[in-house]
Here is the input.
Amino acid sequence: MNRTRHLLTSLLLLVLFPVAGNKLYHQKDKDVFRDSELRCAVRLDGYMVGFNYEILKAFGKSHLDSTTILLGDDLDSLLEAVAKDSLDILVISKDEFKETPGLTGIAMEDSSAIWVIRHEKGAAREITRWNAIFRGSREYAELVRRFSGSYGTARGWQLSSGVISPYDDCFISCARILGWDWKLLAALAWSESKFMIQAKSPKGAMGIMQMMPVTADRFGVTDALDPEENIAAGTRYLAFLQKTLSRYAEDPEILAWLTIAAYNSGGGRALQDLEGRERSSATRAYVETVMRQYNIFSGKSSETGLLGPDGLSGIDPGDEDAGDQKEEHDDQEREDISDQDHGDVDVDGNEGDEVILRV
Here is the structure.
């Protein structure tokens, strides 16, 4: 009897929610969103930003030609933007939502978030329908797996299982370009942003790899929030620095040290620090912090973490510890070394165009 009931339920779902190819919608359901672009804003903390960013991307991919996701701040202004149809979807925590005329809140199960939209039955029905199907998909199961780990100093990491962040696959792929252990690249990213896609420094560096806008644009970033895009661009920048500095260091460990230092403060200061001539200890301290974090990720150290609070508690993305531990990459005045010292080293020269690699 139970088997028969299960079969009937499955058939009913297929009738009610048919799937065409890999699309989770009827063609006519696209019409509930009038424009070709889905406009969204997220006002959340911690890793919930990254989790809901990817859900919004999946929803947008299923329904519209493109999706724009921004970070939100002032709640009243964001709600007004939804009411005026400047935003299609606003994602906030459930405890922030209050019944508002003209707006509908759709609770996302298995999440503390709620999607706020204009009060239109068609849109609410379609989001609810899509969410029910998506939560039963392999894509969603993988998303939950990635974000359900302990990624912070208070809780530690799941080192026994080899899990460090929700973005391990991307670190593994990108680290091959540098010839690094992927855990070293992850340690640098943790030092920059604690794996928070929303991290933003007072000087304007953004995303997991804390790319300054000019640097990010040069190395192919179109959406600074996109974790894969941000990590890939940061890796291309590291590859450029590594190639530029390779003439000064043949030893792989010294070259990695120099590259990490240059990511923090520029190639000139990295070389000065190598010779013991750096006036400031900030660059050396930065590299030592990354390397200590790498030892933690590699299981070589018993320390639980080095940089601030548990990420799941929701760090302040504008806090210095959230990613402003370096200067402005190559956006600042260039730190070239004179011919008298090492020859002409320009970490932002045209030469870099040759080593921008595909990821």
The first helix runs from residue 2 to 16. The chain is about 40% helix and 10% strand. The first strand starts at residue 37 and ends at 43. Residues 6-28, 304-359 have pLDDT under 50 and may be disordered.
